[in-house]
Amino acid sequence: MDDEVLARIGAGRIIAILRGDFRGLELEIASVLYESGITAIEVTLNSPDALVAIGRLTVGIGDKLSIGAGTVMSVDHVLRAADSGAGFIVSPNRNVGVIEATKRLEMVSIPGCFTPSEICEALDAGADAVKLFPAISLGSSFVRAIRSPLGEVRMIPTGGVNPEMAGEFLTAGAWALGVGSELVSSDVSAVGGLVRLRAKAAAFVKAVQTQ
Question: Which of 60, 129, 137, 172 could pair covalently with 144 via S-S, beta carbons 3.0-4.6 A apart?
Answer without folding.
Answer: 172
